[in-house]
Amino acid sequence: MSLSVAGVSVRFGNKNALLDVDLEVADHEVVAVLGPSGSGKSTLLRVVAGLQEPSSGTVRLDDVNVTRVPPHRRGVGLMFQDHVLFPHRDVAGNIRFGNSRADIGSLLGLVGLPDAGRRRVDTLSGGEQQRVALARALAPSPKLLMLDEPLGQLDRELRERLVVELRRLFVRLGTTVLAVTHDQREAFALADRVVVMTEGRIAQIGTPREIWEQPASEFVARFLGFTNIVDVDGGASTPWGAVPPAFAGERILVRPAGVLLTPTSGDAMGKVEVATFAGERVDILLAIPGAPPLKAHCPPATAPEPGDEVSVRLDPAQIVVLPRESPE
Ligand SMILES: Nc1ncnc2c1ncn2[C@@H]1O[C@H](COP(=O)(O)OP(=O)(O)OP(=O)(O)O)[C@@H](O)[C@H]1O
Question: HSE on the CB side for 106, CA within 13 Å?
Answer without folding.
Answer: 9
